[in-house]
Design goal:
The chain is an alpha+beta fold. It is built from nine helices and four strands.
């Protein structure tokens, strides 16, 4: 059986799918699941946490589900030209340290924080914890978003002038922040999100209509759209 990435759109597996699409990877089968299927016996057998993503490669005995491990493994295996991640031994120690730090910070801190806040706002209003929502928004505005802006440092992308897997990864929580009207206050983060979300691969990975309307005012669309997925 071909290596398979099990994916639920609009979860943390979406940026991993987008990266595979941008790399033009054909060897990995992407199996799209519903949230209900995450708790099925078949999925629990490959990922006992009942979460997304999961990755299996039966020929090599691989079955992993932590998103950071899945992303790192796929980059090391399929991004052989180091388009989206720094090459150990070639990148400077600072570049590699910053890359690893940002990847972990997004997966372990930023993503679960914004996902929890977003899910809280989806509850019926009488069930929402308004105290939590208020304090979480304040923490985003005064700590998490300024910290990310500091890491970005006025550059177009987190690792400099070229897009990397970090930018695809941060687009998932920034999508939640955008939905909560918490992104416009941070124009550098907003601009980065627009660059990533304007790519046709974003619409595919997140199972949503292409962001044509939202991209109409984006001056970077010609630059940021994927060459892999644009028609010849």
């Amino acid at each position: 059986m071909a290596p398979t990435l099990y994916h639920v759109p609009r979860t943390i597996s979406s940026p991993i799918v987008q990266i595979l699409l941008e790399l033009g990877v054909k060897d990995v089968h992407i199996e799209t699941l519903t949230f209900a299927e995450l708790k099925s016996p078949a999925h629990l057998a490959r990922n006992p946490m009942g979460s997304s993503p999961a990755f299996t490669d039966e020929d090599n005995g691989i079955a992993i589900w932590e998103s950071g491990a899945v992303l790192t493994y796929l980059l090391e295996t399929y991004d052989t030209h180091h388009k989206f991640h720094p090459k150990q031994g070639t990148a400077t120690p600072l570049e590699r340290a910053n890359f690893l730090h940002l990847q972990q910070y997004i997966i372990a801190t930023v993503y679960p924080f914004l996902a929890s806040l977003f899910l809280q706002t989806l509850k019926p209003e009488h069930e929402q914890d308004q105290g939590y929502i208020s304090s979480a928004k304040e923490k985003w505005l005064t700590l998490l978003a300024p910290t990310l802006t500091g890491f970005l440092g006025g550059q177009p992308f987190f690792m400099g002038n070229a897009i990397s897997s970090i930018d695809f990864l941060i687009a998932k929580p920034l999508n939640n922040a955008k939905s909560l009207d918490l992104l416009e206050q941070f124009p550098d983060l907003d601009a980065l999100f627009m660059r990533v979300s304007c790519m046709p691969s974003f619409a595919i990975a997140y199972d949503m209509e292409e962001r044509t309307k939202d991209c109409s005012g984006c001056t970077d669309c010609t630059e940021c759209r994927s060459l892999v997925l644009l028609p010849n």
